[in-house]
Amino acid sequence: MRERLGRECVYVPSCRLAVYLSLRRWCAPGGTVLMSPVNDDVMVFVVLAAGLRPVMAPMPPRDGNIDIRAVPESTWRSVGAVLTTNVYGMPDDVDELRTRCDRMGIPLLEDAVHAIGTTVGDRPIGTFGTAAWGSPSPIPPARVDRCVHFVRPWCRTRRGFVYSGP
Ligand SMILES: Cc1ncc(COP(=O)(O)O)c(C=O)c1O
Known about the structure:
By secondary structure, this protein is α/β, with parallel strands linked by helices.
């Protein structure tokens, strides 16, 4: 996976744990996370478990992802992170989300669970987020208790924090 994505990967025993670790690592305590309302329900509970508040984004009927242009500017200014889902393998406009997040100085967290193998341009899903994760668990024949956490080597947040590693 490291070779395929060109970024550091960490194997963790559950995808939910990968999401939880990412949220705790990259989101300010008590902050908000912009996400699509179409998602596995466990994701809402992981966001809550991490002490954060999910903010449901407007959603275009065609793909269930975040309707970037319909998100009010006041919401963009207030959210602490964006979580992109790539519902059923249909990617969000990740270039636009990445640009917005960089402009706001907030992390883009990328759920690649439904979209392992999907590319945007020639770039695989899983390479756009500050952190990303994947899991074979929604695919019954591939079900294993293991998932992958893809880590961006640095992240600048609104508070000017820089992470260099792992
Ligand atoms: C989009 C999405 N993210 C995360 C998860 C959580 O994965 P896991 O069940 O491996 O913890 C799922 C599970 O189906 C999912 O569909």
